[in-house]
Fold this protein.
Amino acid sequence: MKKTIKTAFVWARWGVLMAPFATMAAGFTKPPDTGLPTGTITNIVTSFMKWALALLGVFAIIAFVIAGIMYLISAGNENMQEKAKKAMIYAIVGVIVGLIGYVMVQAVESWLGGGNTTF
């Protein structure tokens, strides 16, 4: 328990010490002709989060389809049916987590960007 508290304290201290650097980096403009991507760090992180959440959604839907196929081919086998039902529940939870994550990213982007975007 003490190790967990110590680890949490170290991470909290690191976050407090790094916060000024993150805010300075948000207004950073890159030098010309460096080949670096254009855009702010906020836009890059937001784009990455959208990409990762889309990938999560695709994997969850594929898992749901596989679970459905498992249920269809179980042919009365109770163990296979239970495995398929659990896999379907996990896939549905994955889709819900992906959707909630997408909504959260949109909300934070709207709040930080100051724009009036709708979901």
